[in-house]
Specification:
heterodimer; A: alpha+beta; Butyryl-Coa Dehydrogenase, subunit A, domain 1; Butyryl-CoA Dehydrogenase, subunit A, domain 2; Butyryl-CoA Dehydrogenase, subunit A, domain 3; 3 domains; four-stranded mixed β-sheet; four-stranded antiparallel β-sheet; 8 strands; 14% strand; globular; B: mainly alpha; 2 domains; three-stranded mixed β-sheet; 12 helices; binds flavin-adenine dinucleotide
């Protein structure tokens, strides 16, 4: 075992730190689920790209730095240390991009990755449907091939960022008469396509963080097919593996939050009961455990291991850790917890916002019940039948 | 940075695990328990009944995992010892192999006591530890001598020169005793002890979940295996997840020492207690008996939670560090 950074990695950290110190906006940007906030975050993505910082582990030719995943963890640590803006492009850079690297042809890589890195094209994920949530294999939205185009008809829902985003990667039924996991394909669709209507959906905080998408014979060229036709389920599972397993949530984000929680606790300590301190410690302990586990996972991935069912354990851990952490903050804030922003709202309502978002963690990326099913059946070998 | 065991380290741990599983079978544990219940003592000490397993440990060099190569040891780091401790926990080993190889040998090394160290490596001597974080001593049936710890070492005392008073554990394979002999904290012992008790707890937790998963596949109710019920699946999945997120922090604690050690022991205590409670629930009435083996692992878990710093001890350390300290946490990092 070796847990030392190489001199190169240490220099890299210093370089990241220096660049961020010069470029990170002094104020928190408005939420990217508002029109203004979305564009401000898009500008920030462009700024990151100008320094070649969008995706340090991507290959050089697509705007990355060709670095390993440990360097990515270092980048994330420095990024959250200075509270840099959340990544509006996260669905693209953390979910779609690794999938394109795995399944995309060279033309697709060259076409889609650079504008994704620069924030010119921001992506949404269009998988869920009103009748296909946890049971994603129940997808019915069709993409019928006609010559060199697909014609897409149907309805998607809960597509994060889709209100203001430019493109979506969707999972559609391409094989007529097919059922369940078979006959699906991953297709890339411009969100301004004729026949595509977006209905913004207000989330718990009132902002329109996701959208419903109505497709009425939306024409998309066959070049936009990602991976094998009718083989979209496996492609989606690769994407979901990245989402649940590693890239969507690096430890630094949570470690920064637990550090802020300790601070919050110290500010209010005098009026808190003794048990609260233990919850704060527990929150911190969890983020450290998550960090240790992630470094170990990355070490294994770099040695060639594939992330499989353990991605489900990962998703369970971080989502429940995050909810506990923010619940603890809510309990510390007491009567001030409900203040959304403005006067007397601690940290201008940031903890409340964080708590609200943490409630979504056990739902998106596959609910925690589904992750527990996966672990029980695929790792512990329990039988699938039953209720 | 490669936070994984090297191939050699992995091989050593695997080989030891095989030996432990081969020698310390469930049948052996049941036999020992039977004896203990019949005669209220463990007859198998290293000098008679257990000499077989004890000698094999010595022949395989297991007592010397952490000893210097020049002294005939394998000179492995604590993180490898933690892997071995996990394997020992997995089989609920009654012999104090982990304590001898992982704490006593390094302490004798610190004390420059080569003479006794060699005797331990050869399996001729068993030594216990009298130290503040072990208010009650285990495995006293095996020991010939005790180290009474002091800050930078300790003093070796013959068992008969201590007035040990026996105590009775719920775990039928522990032989407890208490002494009034004063001792002082020893950083090395505390660090190794906490990490290795955590690692054993992890192995116990893993075993209880494995046993329960097996049981859930084979026990039928309502015409199906109980493991097909989600209420069973989800409890087991939760316990499994907690185990998976405890192993890396224990390894990190072994490598880094310091504050991570408290986190590791706390995480292990919580994961193992959760695994134990999950396991008994999955076993139903059967879990509440002496008939199935689960109880041995559960009772060992209860015992190890209190050794080398209990939950409050480690929690208080973190309280001082995080909540009472002046630490600027924003710049802190797990890996340095
Ligand atoms: C903030 C947020 C962002 C999202 N972003 C996106 C996005 O960008 N793109 C996208 O495609 N989707 C997105 N989703 C959708 C998300 O993936 C789904 O909400 C999720 O998969 C659950 O589906 P559902 O909402 O239909 O709930 P349901 O499937 O109806 O589930 C309701 C409840 O029933 C439980 N349940 C269902 N089936 C089982 C079962 N077999 N066993 C046990 N319990 C079960 C669930 O666990 C849950 O508790 C987002 C959701 C949220 C909240």
């Amino acid at each position: 075992m070796n847990i030392n950074y190489t001199p190169h990695q240490k220099n890299f950290r210093a370089e990241v730190r220096e660049w961020l110190a010069d470029h990170v906006p002094g104020e928190r940007l408005p939420s990217f689920d508002t029109k203004e906030g979305f564009e401000r975050h898009r500008e920030w993505e462009a700024t990151l790209a100008s320094g070649n910082w969008s995706n340090v582990n991507w290959p050089l030719e697509y705007g990355g730095r060709g670095l390993d995943l440990i360097s990515w963890l270092i980048f994330e640590e420095e990024y959250y240390r200075v509270d840099a803006p959340l990544r509006v492009s996260q669905n693209g850079i953390f979910l779609l991009a690794p999938t394109i690297m795995e399944y995309g042809c060279n033309e697709q890589k060259a076409r889609f990755l650079p504008p994704m890195a620069s924030g010119k094209e921001i992506w949404a994920q269009a998988w869920s449907e009103p009748g296909a949530g946890s049971d994603m294999a129940a997808i019915t939205t069709k993409a019928i091939r006609e010559g060199d185009h697909y014609l897409i008809s149907g309805q998607k829902i809960w597509a994060s960022r889709a209100v203001f985003a430019d493109w979506c990667f969707g999972l559609f039924r391409t094989e007529e008469g097919s059922e369940r996991h078979k006959g699906l394909s991953m297709i890339l669709v411009p969100l301004d396509s004729p026949g595509l209507i977006r209905r913004p959906i207000a989330q718990l905080d009132g902002d329109t963080g996701f959208a419903e998408l109505f497709f009425d014979k939306v024409r998309v060229p066959v070049e936009n097919l990602l991976g094998p036709e009718h083989g979209g389920w496996s492609v989606a599972m690769v994407t979901a593996g990245f989402e649940r397993g590693l890239l969507l949530r690096s430890p630094a984000r949570f470690q920064a939050a637990s550090a802020r929680l300790v601070k919050l606790y110290k500010q209010h300590k005098d009026r808190l009961s003794s048990g609260v301190g233990e919850q704060v410690i527990q929150a911190w302990m969890n983020t450290e455990r998550f960090c240790a586990a992630t470094y170990q996972l990355v070490s294994r991935v770099q040695a060639g291991a594939l992330i499989s069912s353990e991605a489900s354990a990962n998703k369970l851990f971080w989502s429940e850790m995050d909810r506990h952490l923010h619940r603890t903050a809510m309990s510390i804030m007491g009567a001030q917890a409900e203040l959304e922003h403005g006067l007397d709202a601690i940290d201008n309502g940031r903890w409340l916002g964080g708590y609200i978002f943490s409630l979504a963690g056990p739902i998106y990326a596959g609910t925690n019940e589904i992750q527990r099913n996966i672990l029980a059946e695929r790792v512990l070998g329990l039988p699938r039948v039953g209720v | 940075m490669d936070f994984r065991y090297t191939q050699n380290q992995q091989d050593l741990i695997e080989a030891t695990k095989k030996v432990l599983e081969g020698k310390n079978t469930l049948q052996r544990l049941r036999d020992l328990v039977g004896e203990r219940r019949a005669e209220n003592t463990i007859k198998q000490t290293k000098d008679n009944g257990a000499s077989d397993i004890w000698n094999q440990f010595a022949d395989l060099g297991l007592f010397g995992i952490m000893a210097n190569e020049t002294d005939g040891g394998l000179e492995q780091p604590l993180v490898v010892m933690a892997g071995v401790a996990e394997a020992a926990g997995y089989v609920a080993l009654p012999e104090p192999l982990v304590e001898l190889a992982g704490i006593v040998v390094p302490l004798l090394s610190q004390m420059n006591n080569l003479e006794h160290l060699i005797q331990v490596l050869e399996g001729r001597l068993s030594v216990g530890i009298i130290t503040p974080l072990l208010p009650i001593n285990n495995a006293t049936a095996y020991h010939d001598m005790f180290i009474v710890t002091s800050k930078f070492g300790g003093e070796l005392i013959l068992k008969e020169d201590l007035n040990l008073e026996s105590r009775h554990s719920i775990d039928p394979l522990r032989t407890l005793a208490k002494t009034d002999k004063p001792s002082s904290l020893n950083t090395l012992a505390d660090y190794h002890g906490a990490v290795l008790s955590a690692a054993q707890l992890l192995g116990l937790a893993q075993r209880m979940i494995d046993m329960s998963s097996e049981y859930a596949k084979n026990r039928y109710q309502f015409g199906q295996p109980i493991g097909a019920f989600q209420a069973i699946k989800h409890q087991l999945a939760t316990a499994y997840m907690q185990i998976e997120f405890t192993r890396p922090i224990i390894q990190l604690a072994a490598l880094q020492g310091g504050v991570v050690v408290h986190n590791a022991k706390l995480a292990a205590i919580d994961a193992a207690m959760l695994a134990a409670e999950t396991a008994i629930q999955v076993h139903g009435g059967m879990g509440y008996t002496y008939e199935v083996d689960l109880h041995l692992f559960m009772k060992r878990t209860w015992a190890l939670c209190g050794e080398w710093g209990d939950r409050s001890y480690h929690m208080k350390k973190l309280e001082d560090y995080l909540l009472n300290g002046e630490l600027e946490i924003g710049t802190m990092r797990t890996f340095i």
